Amino acid sequence: MPTGGCAQDAMRQLSKGAAVADPGIAETLQVNTYAQMERDSRVVRAVAEWSRCMKAQRFDYPSPKAAAADQRWQTAKPGKPEIAVATADVACKTQTRVAGTMLAVETAYQQRSMAKVSTQLAAVKKLLDTQIANAKLVTSTGTAR
Prior knowledge:
By secondary structure, the protein is mostly helical. The chain contains seven helices and no strands.
């Protein structure tokens, strides 16, 4: 048995010749930019407008995320109350443009964040490209370069 087991040996073969990089950087960026987007005043305002719209239709949710996470909707088949909330949700999202606001704001944060770490992202791309090339070699010859 190889040192570290078969899984460790496979990673060694796939990563042979690859630069050191943090593949988790993309997920970190996504988590961070989503959090920034949620705190952004434009999104906070749009979500508040959405919430007021929902209240006008007799549904009390602070955000679209809260409406979607309502435990009453954890059923196999949607009932009339869930359909009524979903219908109001879509109408309020359309009226307030909350989804478009969230998308535009998060995209701007993502672009700025990616520009700041472009070197690290390029290194991750090189790592993944090397791993893919090595995987092709391993599957065709049984060994990496």
